[in-house]
Amino acid sequence: MSPRIVIDPITRIEGHLRIELEVKDGRVTDAYSSGTMVRGLEVILKGRDPRDAWAFCERACGVCTTVHALASVRTVEDALGIQVPPNAELVRNLMFCAQYLQDHVVHFYHLHALDWVDVVSALKADPAQTCAIARSISSWPKSSPAYFAEVQKRLARFVDSGQLGIFANAYWGHPAFKLPPEVNLLATTHYLEALEWQKEIVKVHTVFGGKNPHPNYLVGGAACSINIDEVNAINIERLSLVKSLLDEAKAFVEQVYIPDLLAVAGFYKDWGAVGGGLTNYLSYGDLPMNGYSDPGQFKFPRGVVLDRDLGRVHEVDGRNPQQVQEFVTHSWYEYAGGDQAGIHPWEGETQFNYTGPKPPYEQLNVEGKYSWVKTPRWNGKPMEVGPLARLVVAYAAGRQDVKDVVDGTLKKLGVPVEALFSTLGRTAARGLETLLIAQWAEEIYGRLMTNIKNGDARTFSGEKWMPDTWPKEARGVGLTEAPRGALAHWIVIKDGKIANYQLVVPSTWNASPRDGQGQRSSYESALLGTPVADPEKPLEVLRTIHSFDPCLACAIHLYDPHGRTVGRLTTY
Amino acid sequence: MKEGKKTTVWETARSRGVSRRDFIRDCTIMAAMLGLPATSVGQIVKALETKPRLPVVWFHFQECTCCSESFIRSAHPLLSEIILDKISLDYTQTLQAAAGRQAEDALHQTMDKFKGEYLMLVEGAIPRNDDGVYCCIAGRSALDIVREAAAGAKAVIAWGSCASNGCIQAASPNPTGATPAYKIISGVPVVNVPGCPPIAEVMTGTVVHLLTFDRVPQLDGLRRPMAFYSRRVHDTCYRRPNYDAGLFVQTFDDENARHGFCLYKMGCRGPVTYNACSVTRWNEGVSYPIQSGHPCIGCSEPRFWDNGPFYRHLASVPGFGIETTADTVGAIAAAATAGGIAVHAIATNLRKRRVIRKEIETSDDPGPDAPSPKGDR
Lengths: 572, 377
Fold this sequence. Notes:
The complex is a heterodimer of chains A (572) and B (377). Chain A has 572 residues and is of the alpha+beta class. In chain A, strands 1-2-3 form a three-stranded antiparallel beta sheet. In chain A, strands 10-11-12 form a three-stranded antiparallel beta sheet. Chain A starts with a strand and ends in a 17-residue tail after the last helix. Helix content of chain A is 38%, strand content 12%. The longest helix of chain A is centred in the middle third of the chain and has 31 residues, at 236-266. Chain A has helices at residues 41-45, 53-58, 67-80, 86-112, 127-137, 145-160, 181-201, 203-209, 236-266, 387-396, 400-413, 423-453, 506-511, 522-527, 539-546, 552-555; strands at 5-7, 17-24, 27-35, 281-283, 286-288, 298-300, 303-305, 324-327, 375-378, 473-482, 485-494, 497-504. In chain A, helix 5 (127-137) packs across helix 6 (145-160), helix 9 (236-266) runs antiparallel to helix 12 and helix 11 packs antiparallel against helix 12 (423-453). Chain B is α/β, with parallel strands linked by helices and 377 residues long. Chain B folds into three domains: 1-52, no CATH class; 53-228, NADH:ubiquinone oxidoreductase-like, 20kDa subunit (Rossmann fold), CATH 3.40.50; 234-362, Cytochrome-c3 hydrogenase, C-terminal domain (Cytochrome-c3 Hydrogenase, Chain A, domain 2), CATH 4.10.480. Chain B is built from 15 helices and nine strands. In chain B, the strands form three sheets. A five-stranded parallel beta sheet of chain B has the order 2-1-3-7-9, sandwiched between helices. Chain B is globular and about 60 Å long.
């Protein structure tokens, strides 16, 4: 057998991902996904104050910042029986929406677009034609021939400088690029525009959480007090800033992101038949409209769809020890009871067992263990998580707003419903849910204002703040949806301290190595059959991998209990 | 990649239709942003007129990418201006179009062609245990990569607390031997820009400072630029008058919280944290943690994760005054669970002293102990 094709580092993602591929006759015949970095958050959490856990967990990922903090405060609140006031839930929801709006737009333009858009080809475009295309798909006021000509000139000057920076050595001119120069110029222009815009929407986090990335959260509610008669609290000036940021975001998504997404997708309809992968979809659901304890009222419903059967949604229970389990057969860990059995996160074990090659290495031993990512399963089955899974579960649950937007888009693109289950479908689903979230955020903001108007200013529930009010032992689970998919934390609290803490995150589901029975997880499965025109430049592989929006720092968070202290230090 | 003469920032600006007048204005804004006197505008103009774009390579090791995310939030200058007009970002796993071998080739082209000239940016700590197997890129350990790249770098900037002091993965018991960049790199100047993450404009400001003056900014004893880390958050906090008057939040969302009183008793680390948060603030000055009602967790100080539970206030008295330099306080904060109130018991005038002493005596101590700090320090 010829050596596998290795792509390491996979760029335009969060974290350290390595893909090894077998390619035959221009198609991927097998794929191996490996996470190559580990930090050890879970052991670091042990023995700490549960109220501090959100800050540690938030550092699982700075790209999907906030979501781990949200999962963590929910986990602790679940363990201690804390219900947060409605305002706190609404503030958390608004921060959730802001995160998705920023993250998905950045993913589309800055992490994913360069798989579809040939930046160099944009130099050949006629700016007037680009403008005509732009105006035919959107009323975005910035579009003018002069505007696109200006960006093109800037780009030309950049290329002429001979220093191509982030665009150096890429796959420009690859036969898999299909966009005409004018659409390439349109997308490149909005690449720059989106870069400027994304720093605005995160200010919602700054208002409520003081900073972004990594805004502050609080067990029991939200730290930002509301006082409409105080300059030093959340007052109408702060709320108006949030409102205008949400309005701008909605305009950007409706008038730039979605039209661009559909324009680009129109040239790549064949990718509606590539990269489907798994047939099972898991969503924990989120955006509670009547409190976290009432999942029936979540905007994103909770559930599992098996075998792409949209007629049935299976119930998900984070407490059921049979449902979510993690396996380490092909991961660099060992379990006390053997590496074949799965373990529920409350009983989670985390012991390093690196059996890989000593660096520097050329290939991993994929027959054995080959990743720092564990392999989670739901009732023993591999699951895809993420925007597509959320929409599939919501569609199957009969949510009308989701059905309308999905059916409308399929019709607009002229593709069958099966096209959803693909690389293109995944990328489209991300855009469509962003559109929904921009709308839902308005509703959530309206509810917050109504509450405040009615005289409810509470943002924090402090009855169980002090450790002397806690039971001697407590267990909790917190479920949420990160932009990249289903995210859950599990905690065991003993004597006021963290006795065990486990995170099972979206990219653990998607990026994991195969399990003991040889079942592939999402990436490995979706890559099967992906065309590869030039094995030296596997652009098509990046398309499918990026359609999942990988986030590896999240996925790997385990530890070495035998971790030695550092020896002699080189002081400088 | 097309070979050719590198263009200067002024040439680029001119070709984009920027007038000489606007260019000088931009230089003036940049000088103001960097806290430089108006007389240095000429220096900035000259620097941007004559310098080709600086080749820059950005590495990711044990981190969460919050530093990159913060960097792209920069408002002045904008990220697009930085990467298109000011620097040549030749390697970055976050934004680079090329992947795999093509990305590694781009890195090595820059390292070979610009040996001794490129700027190296490090995001993340470097694991030293077990031959560095805890962080590998392209089959090589981070340890290997960092040593090789640093040898040819003009200077190194360590982004965030991870690269500056180890941050979360170096928190007790530091399972992978996570180590900050300056402990591995020698012979090249290292600038630490700590914070989890650092403020966007602090990051870009540090780069523009290097670019403009062609030298490392003045650093404190922890290698942090004085331009951004010479003041305690507490000393520049807009809630400071409440502290001096003895007006404290007693629990979250109480009446005092709704009036924005001092968060010291909620565990605020402002008194022992050197950062620009309360001056520059976050995301174009919108707010900072204290302004939004949450105590500072001290994320730019070494070992802040092990500096006691966050919501237990600082009460011990290491005994340093308000005039103490960042170096001394940094060392104290790093060494142990440092005290904040003490700073003020000494520094605040006598009239207020009595109030504050009373607060120390009556304040409770709710949290359980965190694991004791250990690791590589």
